[in-house]
Write the structure tokens for this entry.
Amino acid sequence: MTTTSTPVKDTVTLARGIRRRAVDMIAPQGFGYLGQALSSAETVAALYGSYLRPGVDRFICSPGHYIIAAYAAAAEVGLLSEEQLLSYGQDGSDLEAIGTERTPLVDLTCGSLAQGLSGAAGFAYADRLRSRTGSRVYALISDGELEEGQVWEAAIFAAHHRLGSLVVILDANNSQVDGPLDSITTIEPIADKWTAFGWHAMDIDGHDVAAVHAAFDSALKDERPSIIIARTSTVHGLDVLPPDADGHFIKLPPELAAAAREELADA
């Protein structure tokens, strides 16, 4: 079974690279989904650097706007070129700002939220029916998606079938377009809910790379479907952002983009 292949310190470097590339991707527009890349940088870095095996495993990016983090990680490990990456969000580019059915490098992404886990469970179940053993299905979902019932239907299905090849990374950044998640709908206690549904649930600091690696390793050893609840912040790793930055859709005027590049270059 796959275990950690990239040292933790390299995951830190990879996460910083994801942040730097995300800044470069949204700077031409002056705004975008930078917060999603900042919050998920460590988990996506660990996934692309240590666990995801292209051509063997599947990756589902459920919230389509998180695709920026996947693109940045793919560029860091050589799956996308610099030219491709810098076309992000441009007219005619394959790298759309919100993932669609045309999106490269991922097996599924959803513009309409909360559908990705259903697809991930379907992939895992299909792999079992086809005796495709040894492969894993990784699904990145967001805490805002827990407000929608389809997630819980998929969770019930996955637990019932004991889809142990399914590993969910939940980016719990407490941010959605209408404001802080906990001011809109209470979703806690998250881990207890998934455990009650029959999942192997781990609740960690999503910016602590040692904890992230330990969680992935634990997930790969458990026979139940696993969820890594990664507590994160949409401004983590970029101190130049103003205190009142809207983490869901960060504004990045040229002077702030320059400061961000300088901070990440010197980190």
Remarks:
- The chain has a mean pLDDT of 93.
- The CA atoms of residues 28 and 254 lie 8 Å apart.
